């Protein structure tokens, strides 16, 4: 076997290994779908009621990102929010403030569980509030663990739990 | 000290600071949340293995009061005694002129400390 054949063989194996690594590190279509879904939720939350839809319609739209029996646990002694209807009621009450409020989602990591009907998601949610009087912005960021489930081809949030970064 | 800092908020963090040495009391550190793009910026006041408590705003380490010249306003916080594990630091902000419930502070695992804030 000549040296040239050896070099070509090594290169071919190297390229194959790189290809496999690249293929395996590609996010799956479910990971893409979940990320896109969360991005859409972020946009929905950040859209002011002045942009068209009424308060109730906007709350219903945001509610559609959650399962019927969704649970939101914010920790720090606050009781869990149980069910989509309760959540929508709270969103409807918050809506008038949204012009001075913005939510961002960063560092989203998705782990689709075997069977591809449930996924664990970890993210940082930042809430930027702008003072209407001074225009000054304040930032409040927290880490959240989400459980998302897939039904009828759509990923929805089944549980949100606040993570205590500082205990 | 700001409670939280977003990526792009022009804070410089030395991510190699703790490769060879351990974080020290007084260091201002960047702490990861779910990832490195949004960070807490806090001061270390408690080291692994120490007992810490706050009584009427005064921090005590292993029973001795901690001098904190960097704290200007001090609300009368009370935090019951905690013992830090070998992997935990106690971090807090310098701005304590508000209710404790409105301030993020507490024990943090060493793995969450991203580096030392330079400025």
Write a concise keyword list for the protein shown above.
heterodimer; A: 167 residues; alpha+beta; six-stranded mixed beta sheet; 4 helices; 6 strands; B: 119 residues; mainly beta; Umud Fragment, subunit A; seven-stranded antiparallel beta sheet; four-stranded antiparallel beta sheet; 1 helix; 41% strand; globular
3D structure, described in words:
The complex is a heterodimer of chains A (167) and B (119). Chain A is 37% helix and 36% strand. Chain A is α+β, with helices and mostly antiparallel strands and 167 residues long. Chain A has a 6-stranded mixed β-sheet, covered by helices on one side. In chain A, α3 (55-63) crosses α4 (84-94). The longest helix of chain A is centred in the N-terminal third of the chain and has 23 residues, at 3-25. Chain A is elongated, with a radius of gyration of 22 Å. The mean pLDDT of chain A is 86. With 119 residues, chain B is mainly beta. Chain B has a single domain, classed as Umud Fragment, subunit A, CATH 2.10.109. In chain B, 3% of the residues lie in helices and 41% in strands. In chain B, the strands form 2 sheets. In chain B, strands 1, 2, 3, 4, 9, 10 and 11 form a 7-stranded antiparallel β-sheet that branches. In chain B, a hairpin with a 2-residue loop joins β6 (58-61) and β7 (64-65). The longest helix of chain B is centred in the first third of the chain and has 4 residues, at 17-20. Chain B is globular, with a radius of gyration of 14 Å. The model of chain B has no long low-confidence stretch (mean pLDDT 91).
Topology, element by element:
The complex is a heterodimer of chains A (167) and B (119).
Chain A: H1 3-25, H2 29-46, H3 55-63, E1 66-73, E2 81-82, H4 84-94, E3 101-112, E4 118-130, E5 137-151, E6 154-163
Parallel strand pairs in A: 1-6
Antiparallel strand pairs in A: 1-2, 3-4, 4-5, 5-6
Helix pairs in contact in A: 3-4
Chain B: E1 4-6, E2 13-14, H1 17-20, E3 28-32, E4 38-46, E5 51-55, E6 58-61, E7 64-65, E8 79-83, E9 88-92, E10 106-109, E11 113-117
Antiparallel strand pairs in B: 1-4, 2-11, 3-4, 3-11, 4-9, 5-6, 5-8, 6-7, 9-10
């Amino acid at each position: 076997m000549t040296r040239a054949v050896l070099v070509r063989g090594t290169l071919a194996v190297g390229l194959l290994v790189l290809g496999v690594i690249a293929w395996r590190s590609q996010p799956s279509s479910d990971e893409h779908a979940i990320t896109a879904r969360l991005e859409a939720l972020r946009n929905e939350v950040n859209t002011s009621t002045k942009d068209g839809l009424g308060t109730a319609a906007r709350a219903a739209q945001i509610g559609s990102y959650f399962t019927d029996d969704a649970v939101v646990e914010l920790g720090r002694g606050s009781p869990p929010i149980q069910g989509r209807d309760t959540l929508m009621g709270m969103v409807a009450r918050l809506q008038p403030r949204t012009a001075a409020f913005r939510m961002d989602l960063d560092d989203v990591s998705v782990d689709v569980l075997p069977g591809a009907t449930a996924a664990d998601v970890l993210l940082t949610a930042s809430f930027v509030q702008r003072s209407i009087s001074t225009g000054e912005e304040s930032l409040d960021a927290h880490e959240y663990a989400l459980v998302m489930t897939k039904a009828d081809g759509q990923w929805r949030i089944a549980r949100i739990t606040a993570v205590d970064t500082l205990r | 000290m700001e409670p939280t800092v977003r990526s792009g908020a022009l804070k410089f963090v030395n991510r190699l600071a703790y490769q060879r040495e351990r974080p020290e009391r007084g260091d201002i550190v960047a702490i990861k949340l779910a990832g490195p793009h949004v960070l807490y910026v806090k001061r270390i006041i408690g080291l692994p293995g120490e007992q810490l408590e706050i009584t009427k705003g005064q921090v005590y380490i292993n029973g001795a009061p901690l001098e904190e010249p960097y704290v200007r306003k001090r609300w009368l916080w009370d935090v019951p005694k905690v013992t830090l594990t070998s992997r935990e630091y106690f971090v807090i902000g310098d701005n304590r002129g508000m209710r404790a419930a409105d301030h993020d502070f507490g024990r943090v695992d060493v793995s969450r400390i991203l580096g030392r804030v330079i400025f």
